[in-house]
């Protein structure tokens, strides 16, 4: 971005009261000056930006203590579109494929070095498409990223997004993207194929096509500090134009035998009755199940042990619960 364009963007963000974009543009200006060799000026700008941030945070806190904020109609509507979650989950709580794990840790490392990357006119990964079978960790990933970065998670209520009235859904989607500038968080569009389906499919509802077009434009323009996650079990149904809008496309496979073993050990830790030989047999039998299926089978076996006052987990009962998950298909 040229110097004049940065100044224009800075003034526009100030006029729109868009703090996130204002700080982002200001940091880009500081980075540009540093690259020109104006190190002292760049450092002064960075210190000034940090001081403004601290001052605004203090003012916001004092304001919140002294008055109740007015909630307008747009904010009420936004409340109906976003479901807030606070997460204490970290990636250490998840059993993940090695490639998936590397991708997620890369995202976290880049997010934690946000300011340093901006100084070099670089952006951290923040727009993610997660694909894979149900129960393989896509939703839990959103919770883990929010937990690792200590920011909220907003689950988008897609049933509230789509309206039968022309143009209303697009207005609602804009509210969500505007919120990304105002509130840094992880925003999860789960079951994304419900709005991201290929526009060439002849039986699609017109309003959904318009929502998809609007989503494409909004995600392309997005310069907020929030993380946008779209998750789907049906990547083949997505419009091809979507894929290049994301920084990373992460594939979630079903767990391997080694990953099943690790998951079983994690879920059964602290309980007696299942030794390594049994675990090997159970892992073989569990191949083809998702992480969620295996985790739920373990929880069922633990609950049955507690309910019937037993001292250890029964291999036969755990096997029964694992097989019951397989029979569901």
TrEMBL record:
Gene3D superfamilies: P-loop containing nucleotide triphosphate hydrolases
Source taxon at top rank: Bacteria
Pfam families in UniProt: AAA
Residue ranges of every copy of the AAA+ ATPase domain listed in the record: 124-256
Transmembrane segments: none
MF annotations from Gene Ontology: ATP binding; ATP hydrolysis activity
Protein name: ATPase family associated with various cellular activities (AAA)
Organism: Pustulibacterium marinum
């Amino acid at each position: 971005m040229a110097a004049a364009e940065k100044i224009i963007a800075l003034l526009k963000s100030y006029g729109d009261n868009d703090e996130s974009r204002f700080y982002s543009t200001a940091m880009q200006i500081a980075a540009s000056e540093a690259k020109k060799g104006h190190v002292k000026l760049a450092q002064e700008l960075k210190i000034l930006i940090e001081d403004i941030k601290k001052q605004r945070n203090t003012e916001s806190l004092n304001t919140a203590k002294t008055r109740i904020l007015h909630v307008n109609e747009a904010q009420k509507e936004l409340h109906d579109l976003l479901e807030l979650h606070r997460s204490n989950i970290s990636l250490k709580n998840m059993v993940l494929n090695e490639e998936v794990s590397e991708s997620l840790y890369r995202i976290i490392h880049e997010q934690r070095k946000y300011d340093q990357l901006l100084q070099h006119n670089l952006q951290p990964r923040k727009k993610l498409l997660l694909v894979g079978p149900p129960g393989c960790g896509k939703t839990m990933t959103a919770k883990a990223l929010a937990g690792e970065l200590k920011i909220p998670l907003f689950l988008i209520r897609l049933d509230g997004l789509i309206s039968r009235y022309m143009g209303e859904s697009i207005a609602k989607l804009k509210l969500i993207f505007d919120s990304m500038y105002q509130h840094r968080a992880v925003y999860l569009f789960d079951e994304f194929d419900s709005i991201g389906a290929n526009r060439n499919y002849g039986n699609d509802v017109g309003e959904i096509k318009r929502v998809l077009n609007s989503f494409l434009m909004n995600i392309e323009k997005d310069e907020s500090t929030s993380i946008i996650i779209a998750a789907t079990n049906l990547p083949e149904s997505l419009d091809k134009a979507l894929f290049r809008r994301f920084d990373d496309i992460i594939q979630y496979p079903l767990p391997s035998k080694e990953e099943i073993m690790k998951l079983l050990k994690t879920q059964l830790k602290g309980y007696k009755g299942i030794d390594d030989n049994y675990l090997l047999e159970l892992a073989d039998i569990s191949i083809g199940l998702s992480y969620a299926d295996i985790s739920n089978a373990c929880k069922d076996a633990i609950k049955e042990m507690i309910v019937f006052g037993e001292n250890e987990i029964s291999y036969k009962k755990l096997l029964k619960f694992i097989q019951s998950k397989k029979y569901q298909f």
